[in-house]
Amino acid sequence: MKLKDKIAIITGAASGIGYAVAKEMAKEGATIIVADINFEQAQKAAQNINEYGKAFAHSVDVRDAEAVKKLVDDVAEQHGRIDYMFNNAGIAIMGEMMEMSLEQWNRLFDINVRGVIYGTHAACNVMKKQGFGHIVNTASLAGIIPSPNLGAYSGTKHAVLGICKSLRIEAREFGIKVSAICPGVIDTPMVTDSEMINEEQLAVSREEIRENIQLTPYPVEKAARVIVKGVKKNKGIILITGHAHILSRLYRFFPGLSELIGRSYYKREKNIFAKKK
What we know:
- This protein is of the alpha/beta class.
- It contains 10 helices and 9 strands.
- A 7-stranded parallel sheet has the order 3-2-1-4-6-7-9, with helices on both faces. Strands 5-8 form a two-stranded parallel ribbon.
- Helix 3 runs parallel beside helix 4 and helix 4 runs parallel beside helix 5.
- The longest helix has 29 residues.
- The radius of gyration is 19 Å and the shape is globular.
């Protein structure tokens, strides 16, 4: 098995895509470092993953560059190397960009962009010395296409994807591989529990908003299998879900049409997110 005895750090691995990928890799023989800001939840996740393979829980706030570096250096020292670094931790804030506070903007970029940069930087330093390694950063379909009502989140994921595309070329000479994960709508807590701007002022409940999601969320376990398969094949961009493949191609070849679809979607969502009168 290609993943047997490999060492993988996965941030944000206590739930969602991170946890599903951790479990899938453990099944194939990898040793998983379950890193998450919620240490108690990370411990529970590691215990569950240990039913399939080896997992260890670590507490880390990806907004803290020194803490991320310490995690990476400690794992490399304890296990002799790092084969995979998954910078997966992330958040989403739903709503129009013009109504978002600067605190919300900063929180999004601190976690989704700087968190990826800190993990990538720390892992590159170790992997350059090793002469091998694979960095896998979680971007999104929203990092490829226009995403009204997720514009700020989309901006962070465009940044992550841009970093990955260029780093993949630069890091190759050092034996380091780089991949970007670009999921569509996946059945994770991010879909249902993400923060909403001015939620208390909305005319509809969070449950009603969930019911109006046009795309059926893709099972996270299936997404994990696609991700692991793509990583083993060293794909530069790992698209997940049929709608992600369709919409990314549509935007690539017909950007004008894609924008029209985005406008239609935005008008529909604007009615859903309408404020109380």
